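Exercise 7.
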Amino acid sequence: MRVAADTGGTFTDIVFVEDGILKANKVSSTPFDPSVAVLEGIASLPVTTLVHGSTVATNAFLERKGARTAFITTAGFEDILFIGRQARSSLYDFNVEKPAPIVLKKDCFGVKERLTAKGEVLIPLSGQEQKRCLSSLKKRPVESVAICLLHAYLYPKHEQALKKAISSLHLPVSISSEILPEFREFERASTTAINAYLSPIMSRYLTRLKEKLPRAALYIQQSNGGWLKAEEAGRLAAHTVLSGPAGGVSGAFSWAKTLGEDKIITFDMGGTSTDVCLVDGCIPFTREYILDGFPLSLPVIDIHTVGAGGGCIAYLDAGGVLKVGPQSAGADPGPACYGKGDLPTVTDANVVLGRILPEHFLNGRFRLYPERSKKAISKLAQRMQISIEEAALGIIEVANINMIRALRRVSLERGYDPQAFSLFCFGGASGLHACALTRELGVRRVLVPKLASVLSAFGLLFAPPLKDFSRTIWLKADKGAKDRLKEVLLELKRQAASQMKQMGLVEGELEYEYFLDMRYQGQGYELSIPLQDDYISAFCEEHKKQFGHSYQDFPIEIVTLRLRVRGQRENTDWQIRPEGQEVPLRQTKVFTKKGWLEVPVIDWNRLRIGEQFKGPALVVEPFTTVWVEPDFFVEVGENYTLILYYEGYTSN
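Solution. The predicted structure, written as tokens, is:
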């Protein structure tokens, strides 16, 4: 059986197909060792293949608990990781603090070697230099090594020689010509150092998990939406930093297409954070991702994250202003209603407002303590001199503001009209906030899938094997460039086919996509253009679309070639079958700006495709609750997806 497991900050989600029926399970995450929750979630299943979305690498980086890493570079460039770029996020802030380093200055070494900007050897790397480097490494208890030599993307032999020499020390080595064979020294050095910093941690975690699942094939989701074999993921840990969120976007897009939608804004609200992504016909990618202050120049799905999850803690700042997040109660102790903690969170606010019904939370398997939520929020309410319910409503409104900013960041601020898109809500807490966000953002409708709370795991289950390859070259974009382009693209294709063959995939199962990074000569940035016959005109058109102008006669250069190779997706057929303990139709009270409202409790599992009704209502199922506000209509679409329309919009 093929099973997907996505580790979140609060819960670990399990999704699988049994007898053609898509099924899901949730267990509490175990931050001390994420594999414990994964193994608990799949204990009763005959697992033959496990696709895992892991936060191990991300958490290790954010908490600065990676391996002690040595950084080796060309002599004179030892400070590159500390100097970085001239650009600053807070240019006029004299008290700004740089992110905590991942490599100590005393662990940075320079070797005497030098290449020209064209990749020609100016100073060879001698055997004596290699021995000196080994001697320096032996004096320090490092666990991993990152090597980034100047212009190694054009001539990798010096890096390869150092890697071979260091192999005698039995240390994992990351070299830039393998991790990121592209120009821009700081970004290349940062990405290589991140990989070296995280690889030992990821490798140890996957080794432990593999030992506990000796008969199962283990794959890890990448940040680009595809998966890697566990052995390779341990060596290329930097590719897994957005593992789970990437699965969510892929799953949302796949599900939306079954409803005839290809223009969506994904809204993934979990326990710790909220991830949003605008998908306009195809999943967007970026290579300018910043991981806690460090550039990670690998292809990742273009996701914007804010600290606004269900577990985010509410508090009053020094000026008495109500704030929510980004600090989270996580899985342990969790929100106050979980019975361990005493800090007020967004989840506690929803409990106090009557939007979360304790008796239906995880089908009653997970006990909630609503009295603890009231006690936690009452402390805030007393300081604010308002009622507990008003304080809870304030927490929700502040959290909504944080999420609206994120949604506008990926839509309005990038020139997209939200009214042309549907808001695709998933994650355990999204359905409680969907209506308020829809009204504020002005999207045309909301889609809430039946498996909203485990959709990231759903995306993992059907993810394809996927790999990205790149090579920086410097070519003037003219007729003479085509022969050189063809030569390099064939080299990349051979490299891609070889690596995919090691994953058990043959040529007929592979799909290739080619891209060119192009710019006007002298520019400091590039646009990535799909390879086509008239790529020059395509670049000019894209430049005009992005920046409002283009130059027909100005010299254009091709900087980097890219290849994405994708294997076939898992072809498992699936369908949703409503199941679980039936919830009797009854009335409950929900607090709103107008006070307490009597609203019906509707069992999602008893709805029928094509059925329609109007809010207010609470739609419940074991893992998700949807709060339908009074001015919204609901239609039950394919796969029991709830389609919500704001009053004034229609399904037509």
